[in-house]
Amino acid sequence: MPVRADYTFASDNTAGICPEAWAGLAAANAGRVPSYGADAWTARLQQHFRKIFATDCDVFLVLNGTAANALALSALCQPFNSIICHDYSHVDTDECGAPELFTGGSKLMALAGPNGKLEPTAVERALRRERGVHFQKPGALSLTQSTEWGTLYTLAEIRALATLAHAHGLAVHMDGARFANAAAALRGRGITPADLTWRAGVDVLCFGGTKSGLHATEAVVFFNRDLARDFDRRVKQAGQLDSKMRFAAAQWDAMLRTGAWLKHAAHANALAQKLAAAFRRHPALRLIAEPEVNGVFVELPPAVFAALESRGWHFYRFIGEHGYRLMCAWDTTDQDVADFAADLAAVMRSAAAPQTGKKKPPAKKPGAR
């Protein structure tokens, strides 16, 4: 039995740099260019983002998603504030306290919600917990789009949550590590990136580059430009100002100018649908949530997971005891999905087959008890 040696469905982070971003890097590598963002690619950057979002916005590049989220939240909150987020949000579960560190002490208030999404009723209950100076004052609402469960907030849901947040004086942050996948999924319904963000009440978006096929670059996009005051100094102080900024900006330039950011995201989303279909062929398995972007979440018996792992398939337990996450990326292929589907079918047949080869117990002798 052949065993794979890659990390096909472990994470969209395991994919390499996509061709367009690689071409951008090559272009930026030609000759000597001014440093710290004083280059032609960085100069064009604001124009690209303003075109995509159909509004004036301020854009800052940082090196990774943790810094993007933590720095963005630090611009929205004082140390005595709290940040309302989902209990599966990346800011709460995967950033080692960076939001608390960068804000100087803001407390994360993590709330449960179905399918990875916050609900207005739960947020409103959290807002009522304030007890004057004895309790941290809510300062920001953080939404993840697409969510950590591979689902999407609808426009109505974003508007309702943002309206509630603004009515209580909170700024709205969107963790968009997979914003490209969300935008690609909703484009067919006539929903634009502008609709998904500032028109729905989002003040600042952390636009993911890494999971879209770029190398070491994320964009922090301020739609409420008043909140971006001195953000460049926050970036510098946090060690996130890239001296060779052209390499980050040239990747974004190539991706946004050509539309590759949406093309690759749509491809990953489509393959996740095919992967989900492979699981649906087996009634004994259950999808935890209907996939809307590039992630599939499924409950697997331990023996099934172990058998797939032994065949070289890499993916992680993510929800509860038996809930697993499989991620598709820009470089996932139809053959990858077909191979996995074939192995899954073989494993499920083996699990369902009656066990043979065991010795039969000796027949009882007449009169034996």
Beta-strand level of the residues, as a percent range?
A: 15-25%
The CATH topology of the largest domain is given as: Aspartate Aminotransferase, domain 2
- Number of helical segments with 4 or more residues: 14
| CATH C-level class of the largest domain | Alpha Beta
End-to-end CA span: 46 Å
Outline: globular
Q: How many strand units?
A: 11
State the order of secondary-structure elements, H for helix, E for strand: HHEHEHHEHEHEHHEEHHHEEHEEH
Uncertain runs with pLDDT below 50, 5 residues or more?
A: 357-369
Structural class assignment: alpha/beta
Query: Helicity, in percent?
Result: 40-55%
* Average pLDDT rating: 93
Main pleated sheet: 7 strands, mixed
Lateral strand order in the biggest sheet: 1-7-6-5-4-2-3
State the CATH architecture of the largest domain: 3-Layer(aba) Sandwich
Total discrete domains: 2
Q: Give the CATH H-level superfamily of the largest domain.
A: Type I PLP-dependent aspartate aminotransferase-like (Major domain)
Would you give an account of this structure?
There is one protein chain. The chain has 369 residues and is an alpha/beta fold. The protein folds into 2 domains: 18-260, 3-Layer(aba) Sandwich (Aspartate Aminotransferase, domain 2); 261-352, Aspartate Aminotransferase, domain 1 (Alpha-Beta Complex). Helix content is 41%, strand content 15%. It has 14 helices and 11 strands. It has helices at 19-28, 40-53, 65-76, 90-93, 98-103, 120-127, 155-167, 179-187, 193-196, 231-237, 245-258, 260-280, 302-310, 334-352, and strands at 58-62, 81-86, 107-111, 137-144, 171-176, 204-207, 218-222, 286-289, 295-299, 316-319, 323-327. The strands form 2 sheets. A 7-stranded mixed sheet has the order 1-7-6-5-4-2-3, sandwiched between helices. Strand 8 and strand 9 (295-299) form a beta hairpin. Helix 2 packs parallel to helix 11. The longest helix has 21 residues, at 260-280. The protein is globular and about 65 Å long. The model is unreliable at 357-369 (pLDDT under 50).
